[in-house]
TrEMBL record:
Family classification: Belongs to the JAKMIP family.
Organism: Petromyzon marinus (Sea lamprey)
Listed Pfam families: JAKMIP_CC3
Compositional bias ranges of the Basic and acidic residues kind: 160-175
UniProt keywords, alphabetically: Coiled coil
Secretion signal, residue range per the UniProt entry: none
UniProt-recorded name of the protein: Janus kinase and microtubule interacting protein 1
Length: 623
């Protein structure tokens, strides 16, 4: 009993001592918990801020690298696009020049074809008319010859009748005497006249045959000329059909010329606006110079950049206006060439008509003289009356020829005048459609104005170049300046992008701060709730060194420690036994799989526990 009481007292003393130790340990842990709770907010906030700052810095660096890479790719793409643009612009200019040259060549070819066709038509018409006149003259000559032959036949019949009357009225007794006395004379005269008449008839028949041959040849020639005329008319129609697209193209080019004139006017307005801005800038620069020295290098760079841009713009304007001037001068030259060619054709035609009329009059006179000589040679044995009757019918023929030639020239002149008036009307219509672009005076005024503008712009460019040379700067400096300006623009753009990124990061930081404030407010609410709630008495049982609460719980519940490796070995031995059924073997395999997964999970939990312990150690060291 005494031993029992002594053991009870010692046990109670030991319990009291252990309780005191546990109470002191609890108080110590509660104080550590309070300190940890007080410092955890600041630490968590600092850690979160550091992590957010580090994440923001990493994101900013990554975004910066990405933006730099994108900037390089955009630069390369821009360079390629600029090269493609320059190539396309040069190709377009070359194509426009080729089209312009081909257009002018087509116009020249069309005018040449029209001129050649008109000349061929006129030549063929002249040949036709000359052939018709020759045919008419030959027909008149044939009619004169036929009339002369008929007159000779009538004279012969009259002579035959006279000889018959003479023979019938003489007495029979005088016949032998008459025969003897006048046989030599009358017989000789009759024989001579018969021979002359037969010779004239044969000659007239030969002449008539020759004239018929000439008429047949002329008819064949007339048929050939008619075929040629039809072919030429067909060619004229084909040329007109070929000219139709060219005329449409000319109309489109005229419309394009109007568009270019409108664009030129717009460019002139822009140039005026730029000149006004330049005057304002020069006035402001002079005002700055009078007020004091320049504010800095940036203003000088801005002024130089404005001057360079203005120089480039003026150069482009001068090039465009030079192209427009060239186009207008070519159009004016072609119009003037067409008008001069038309006037020259009219003058040549008038000269040809004059020469033709003089030649026709000379030809008529020579034909008249030849006809008179021929009639005189043919009628050498006829009387004066016969010669007079043969010569008088030629006078109205010559008058008729002259009258016909005059009427023909008048008709031709009227026809050409009608053509000239039609061309004038077409020219006036074209002039109205183009809005007066082909007016000579207006073209001259426009040319003078364009030349004056060109000289003014050239003088402006020279002044700017002189100003650059006075500053001691050249084209290389201008190029370097342009590159520097482009670099500044790129840097400004990059700076704007970085500012946008910074603003976005600031917004994210602000959001994180708001979230931290919400978390702090939530922590305060939890602390207030914990303060108002009844206190918890944490009666922790004593642990051995190196034991965890889980092990203590297992020991209290009389749970046995299980070794996974031993269980795996037992399962291997059990699986090697051949007396197992199929479902038992499947259960063994599933158990092995579950044990392997549990082993992996335990290893992961141990790794997590080690990491948490290390973190707690680090937190204690930071205190």
């Amino acid at each position: 009993q005494a031993v029992r009481e002594s053991l009870i007292r010692t046990h109670e003393m030991e319990l009291v001592r252990v309780i005191k130790m546990k109470d002191s340990e609890i108080h110590r842990l509660q104080g550590a918990l309070v300190t940890l709770r007080d410092g955890a907010q600041d630490k968590v906030k600092a850690v979160l801020q550091a992590e957010a700052r580090e994440d923001a810095r990493r994101a900013w660096e990554g975004e910066r690298v990405r933006l730099l890479h994108d900037l390089e790719t955009l630069k390369a793409a821009k360079k390629q696009v600029e090269e493609m643009l320059t190539h396309t612009v040069t190709a377009d200019k070359q194509k426009a020049a080729d089209l312009r040259t081909s257009h002018h060549a087509h116009q020249e070819e069309v005018t040449r074809i029209k001129r050649d066709s008109e000349r061929d038509i006129r030549r063929l018409m002249d040949e036709l008319k000359s052939r018709e006149r020759s045919v008419l003259s030959l027909e008149r000559e044939l009619g004169a010859q036929a009339g002369y032959a008929q007159r000779l036949a009538l004279q012969r019949e009259a002579l035959d009748e006279a000889s018959e009357r003479r023979n019938a009225g003489s007495p029979k007794r005088e016949i032998p005497a008459a025969v003897t006395n006048s046989g030599g004379v009358t017989g000789g005269a009759g024989v001579k006249e018969g021979h002359l008449e037969e010779r004239d008839v044969r000659r007239f028949q030969l002449r008539i045959g020759e004239l018929h041959g000439v008429v047949r040849k002329l008819e064949d020639r007339n048929a050939l000329l008619a075929d040629e005329r039809n072919e030429l008319l067909k060619r004229v129609r084909e040329t007109e059909a070929q000219l139709k697209p060219l005329l449409d193209k000319n109309r489109r080019l005229a419309k394009k010329c109007d568009d270019l004139v409108a664009a030129q006017q717009r460019q002139e307005e822009r140039v005026r606006g730029l000149s006004r801005e330049n005057l304002e800038l020069t006035a402001s620069q002079t005002a700055c110079v009078t007020c004091g020295p320049p504010s800095g290098h940036e203003e000088m760079e801005e002024g130089d950049e404005a001057d360079e841009t203005e120089i480039e713009f003026l150069r482009l304007q001068v090039a465009e206006q030079q192209n427009i001037i060239d186009d207008l001068t070519k159009a004016l030259q072609s119009a003037a060439y067409d008008r001069n060619a038309m006037e020259l054709d009219i003058i040549r035609w008038q000269r040809k008509q004059k020469r033709r009329s003089s030649r026709s009059s000379k030809r008529i006179l020579t034909q008249k003289l030849v006809g008179v000589e021929r009639e005189m040679s043919l009628d050498s044995d006829s009387s004066y009356a016969t010669d007079r009757t043969a010569g008088t019918p030629g006078t109205p023929d010559t008058d008729m020829d002259e009258h016909m030639a005059r009427e023909e020239t008048e008709l031709r002149f009227r026809h050409l005048m009608h053509e000239y008036q039609a061309l004038q009307r077409a020219y006036s219509l074209l002039h109205e459609q183009l809005g007066g672009g082909l007016d000579a005076e207006r073209d001259a005024l426009t040319r003078e104005q364009l030349q004056a503008d060109l000289l003014k712009y050239q003088a402006r460019v020279e002044d700017l170049e002189r100003a650059l040379s006075q500053r001691g700067q050249d084209a290389t400096w201008v190029e370097e300046k342009q590159q520097l300006c482009r670099r500044n623009q790129e840097l400004l753009q990059k700076l704007h992008e970085l500012e946008n990124d910074e603003n976005s990061l600031k917004q994210e930081v602000q959001d994180l701060q708001d979230q931290n404030e919400l978390m702090e407010f939530r922590i305060l609410e939890l602390e207030e709730r914990e303060r108002r709630s009844p206190g918890l008495s944490l009666l922790l049982p004593p642990f051995r060194e190196g034991d965890s609460p889980l092990q203590w719980y297992c020991a209290r519940e009389a749970a046995m420690e299980v070794s996974i490796h031993e269980l795996m070995k037992k399962l291997d031995l059990l699986g090697d036994n051949a007396n197992l059924r199929n479902d038992e073997q499947v259960a063994v395999i599933q158990a092995r799989t579950v044990l392997s997964l549990a082993d992996k999970w335990l290893h992961q939990i141990e790794g997590t526990e080690v990491a948490l312990q290390q973190k707690m150690i680090d937190l204690e060291n930071e205190k």
